[in-house]
Write a structure and sequence with these properties.
The complex is a heterodimer of chains A (114) and B (113).
Chain A: E1 4-7, E2 10-13, E3 19-25, E4 31-38, E5 42-51, E6 54-57, E7 64-66, E8 76-78, E9 87-94, E10 104-105, E11 109-113
Parallel strand pairs in A: 2-11
Antiparallel strand pairs in A: 1-3, 3-8, 4-5, 4-9, 5-6, 7-8, 9-10, 9-11
Chain B: E1 3-5, E2 10-14, E3 19-21, E4 24-26, E5 31-38, E6 44-50, E7 56-58, E8 64-68, E9 73-78, E10 87-95, E11 102-103, E12 107-112
Parallel strand pairs in B: 2-12
Antiparallel strand pairs in B: 1-4, 3-9, 5-6, 5-10, 7-8, 8-9, 10-11, 10-12
Classes of the chains: A mainly beta (114), B mainly beta (113).
Chain lengths: 114, 113
Amino acid sequence: DGGITQSPKYLFRKEGQNVTLSCEQNLNHDAMYWYRQDPGQGLRLIYYSQIVNDFQKGDIAEGYSVSREKKESFPLTVTSAQKNPTAFYLCASSMDAGAIGTQYFGPGTRLLVL
Amino acid sequence: AQSVAQPEDQVNVAEGNPLTVKCTYSVSGNPYLFWYVQYPNRGLQFLLKYITGDNLVKGSYGFEAEFNKSQTSFHLKKPSALVSDSALYFCAVRGKGTDKLIFGTGTRLQVFP
């Protein structure tokens, strides 16, 4: 988990509310990623960013949005359009996205719906 | 399309015995293969990776994995299991020329004293 921080550890969302999950890295990595983890389904890619001010949709981007204004930060917003947001969210980073760099993960944020 | 399969949801092994966690993959071209471990309510920790070269890759905590191109497998192994190895293990693959890492569904390893 070293070098990548996620906050908060637990987050509660009310119906119709947008919530933002924080991800910060001090590894000077170019690429950052957001995954969603559900029991028995492994990790699914939500969004990824190879460079500042640029990002691409992953496999399950609907109902989520991201920004990449700084190299070290890649916040994820879970919008009210995401009807089933309860999951464990993991942020990762790698030196760059196009090569064989290892992805390193943060400690995760568990999102629960009230 | 890229895919990775972990055929066992759970593996049980006695402490001190050897362990194997299975992984098979499907990619076009040469694969880049990874193993990660996850402890409860924590992020994933990198164990080892295969990029090229020697088919036997050694990683953290005494784990190793063998790349077998003909069987498209990358099984994780350890000669002597510890109770502290009990965790969820993920295999992942990236095909050449793609940005995405595809994860398996995970295998829960339970090591009994």
